[in-house]
């Protein structure tokens, strides 16, 4: 693994880690977070580490206090894409460039510049193509879209952070986040029994 960190991330990571440790030491802060499935309060559950390019960042998992739900949720910093090692800023840039007809390799050069392997643009492109079908299945748009960049940027309805917008709208569709969740489509049941299920189980795979 390369030892050179992504230059833009150092300061941001320190800020987020500080906030996370503050949350850990003052669990009352979780009172501001509600379970996205049943809107009950949550409590600290566990933490794990994920990669952000060549940095490790701490991720806290909280658990819904409703005994009929009990779902665990990972609190992912908004600059980090869940389930992989890239940052939100580069992913958005990639999707926007693809929307304007830029090739996969050229649009994905930002990932390589940030420390990912030269194969990564093609890897993320294939992953996004799979998500295209998930989005169609969950959102059932009346218009027919031809690729992931078009469906994401159209359905997101926002200029910034389209990934977050799509994932939040997934929850409105009573489904787990369709983008970058490591499990496939999971529709929430109305009466969830008390069990420890996670929408995004931890992954410690290196980039
Ligand atoms: Zn819940």
Write the layout of secondary structure elements.
Elements: H1 9-25, E1 42-52, E2 55-64, E3 72-75, H2 88-99, H3 104-107, H4 109-113, H5 120-139, H6 148-156, H7 162-172
Antiparallel strand pairs: 1-2, 2-3
Helix pairs in contact: 2-6, 5-6, 6-7
**Unreliable residue runs:** 1-15, 24-28, 192-196
Quickly count the domains.
2
Shape category: globular
Bound molecules: zinc ion
Count of DSSP helices? 7
Look at the structure and give the mean pLDDT.
Answer: 79
Number of strands: 3
Question: Which structural class should the secondary elements be placed in?
Answer: alpha+beta
| Percent in strands | 5-15%
Strand order of the largest sheet: 1-2-3
Q: How much helicity do the residues have?
A: 25-40%
Main sheet attributes: strand count, strand direction, barrel closure: 3 strands, antiparallel
Query: Rg to the nearest angstrom?
Result: 18 Å
**Secondary-structure element order, N to C:** HEEEHHHHHH
Distance separating the two termini: 9 Å
Summarize this, please?
The protein is α+β, with helices and mostly antiparallel strands and 207 residues long. The chain is 38% helix and 12% strand. The chain has two domains: 67 residues, no CATH class; 85 residues, no CATH class.
Can you put this structure into words, describing what you see?
The chain is 38% helix and 12% strand. It is α+β, with helices and mostly antiparallel strands. The protein has a three-stranded antiparallel beta sheet, with helices on one face. Helix 5 (120-139) packs across helix 6 and helix 6 (148-156) crosses helix 7 (162-172). The longest helix is centred in the middle third of the chain and has 20 residues, at 120-139. Mean pLDDT is 79; it is low at 1-15, 24-28 and 192-196. The structure holds zinc ion.
């Amino acid at each position: 693994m390369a030892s050179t960190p992504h230059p833009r991330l150092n300061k941001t990571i320190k800020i987020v880690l500080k906030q996370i440790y503050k949350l850990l030491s003052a669990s009352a802060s979780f009172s501001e977070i509600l379970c996205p499935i049943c809107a009950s309060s949550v409590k600290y559950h566990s933490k794990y580490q994920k990669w952000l390019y060549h940095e490790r960042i701490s991720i806290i998992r909280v658990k819904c206090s409703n005994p009929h739900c009990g779902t665990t949720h990972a609190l992912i910093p908004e600059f980090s894409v869940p389930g992989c090692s890239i940052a939100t800023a580069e992913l958005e840039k990639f999707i926007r460039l693809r929307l304007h007809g830029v090739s996969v390799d050229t649009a994905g050069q930002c990932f390589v510049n940030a420390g990912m392997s030269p194969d990564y643009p093609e890897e993320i492109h294939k992953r996004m193509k799979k998500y295209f079908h998930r989005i169609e299945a969950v959102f059932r748009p009346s218009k027919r879209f031809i690729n992931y960049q078009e469906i994401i940027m159209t359905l997101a309805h926002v200029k910034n952070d389209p990934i977050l917008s799509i994932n939040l709208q997934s929850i409105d569709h009573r489904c787990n986040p369709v983008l970058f969740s490591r499990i496939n489509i999971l529709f929430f049941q109305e009466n969830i029994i008390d069990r420890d299920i996670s929408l995004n189980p931890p992954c410690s795979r290196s980039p």
